[in-house]
Amino acid sequence: MIGRYANPVIAGMHPDPSICRVGEHYYLACSSFEYFPGVPIFHSRDLVHWELIGNALDRPSQLPLDNAPSSGGVYAPTLRHHDGRFWLITSNVPHGGTLLVTSTDPAGPWSEPRTLPGIHGIDPDLTWDDEGNCWCTYAGIEQVRIDPATGESLSRPRRIWAGTPGAQWPEAPHLYKIGDLWYLLIAEGGTERGHGISVARGPSPNGPFEPCPGNPILTHRSTDQPIQNTGHGDLVQAHDGSWWMVFLGTRPRGGTPGWHTLGRETFLAPVAWVDGWPVIDDVAPEMQADLLPQHPFPEPPARDDFDGADLHPRWISVRSRPGATWSLKDRPGWLTLHGRGGSLDDPAVSFIGRRQEHLSCRVRALIDASAGRGGLAVRLDEQHHYEIEAGDGEVCVRVRIGPVVQWRTARPEPTGPVVLRIETQASGPSPDHPRQEPDVVRLGFESSDGRFVVLDELDGRYLSTEVAGGFTGRVIGMYAAAGTIRFDWLSYDPTPDTP
């Protein structure tokens, strides 16, 4: 069925996608870095529509992150289905090493991790050959045969391909048996504008490998495409026999050099086979392809009233979420946060947020700050965040950009609970001037008649990867800076990119 679909297929900070198929169902995992719970797991019936069904690493025993720096933590999982089980291998950087978890249900629960002490690199991949041997290949394109039941290495590391001569960072390997040959897919060029995907093939999982003469098979480097940084892909054959690739990319906006604020997102492209090699055309925000029968999921509610017994898996926290710092039971129907750490500058801040998924959006929350200080924040890392904070009789805007901290504006706090609000508004796709911002971020509160009282309007570039560095994207959410803060509800709504 020829149809159209929109890219990205999973928006917001969902990089390094890895995919597997079980019958007519598809499952996908992404990196999660310093956020807990880790490794979001998605389900699809058509490769276009995806539903978040859980997080693979959702218990503190699985994912110690207290010592992880921002943009550290969980890197590049590989998700596979073999012998009736799901297998997920990933790295916890810099101190957690390589770990492997399994489950019979991709929604969880997943096992306690097995560590793989013989794997000394990120981006680990798993594959099994026809004799039942399990191979782990990782960045630098080194390979070790392992016992997946124990994590023990059964061979010495061996480099199986160096990638394209002169290309930096050969990483993100994935190995596939397709027909009589083994195909080795890798990323090269770094995950910035030079990113790309190359492929080689050989007679066995450990080579020798012949590079594709058309490498890189996917890159948007040195182009004016609206989607950039394309790379780190994974192949899947659909149940109708067609082939597809998921991969990461970004949507930079504004002037020079272009700033992406949402992080690296998951994109989808059809794959053709020509002379035994995979071929991918340029990837656009709107794609036309021969699609599988469509199975969209109901749109998730824009508003969370915190009436459930637990938080939805979309909600993430910075490094950990100790039970003593939050509750859905202290005041039923409200999310209660207890302060630990005085601000978003603190690595252990009490924070629960969600990934920003749209270039332009509106986030609102009803907050009771009568017993403390807290509010809504847009976070990239400890040194780059904006927040609208209530407490101590006032509503104010706080800004952290690198070493500079500034309380920008303040107003007397309205009586009783107050609706705090953050809006992002994307700039146009064609910059009006070389340094045009990617978006503006407006922070304020709502008056009793629902009017948005804007306390500050800030340049969004300072909450972008090009300014802050690292590998993550924006997360918008609720925090407690001191005392006890309660949230009755939070709503997240996309808004038009053109004002």
From TrEMBL:
Domain Beta-xylosidase C-terminal Concanavalin A-like, first and last residues per copy: 303-492
CDD domains from the UniProt entry: GH43_XynB-like
Residues passing through the membrane, by range: none
Keyword terms of this UniProt record: Glycosidase, Hydrolase
Domain of life: Bacteria
Family annotation (InterPro entries): ConA-like_dom_sf (IPR013320), GH43_C2 (IPR041542), Glyco_hydro_43 (IPR006710), Glyco_hydro_beta-prop_sf (IPR023296), Glycosyl_Hydrlase_43 (IPR051795)
GO terms of molecular function: hydrolase activity
Family: Belongs to the glycosyl hydrolase 43 family.
Protein name: Glycoside hydrolase 43 family protein
Organism in which the protein naturally occurs: Phytohabitans aurantiacus
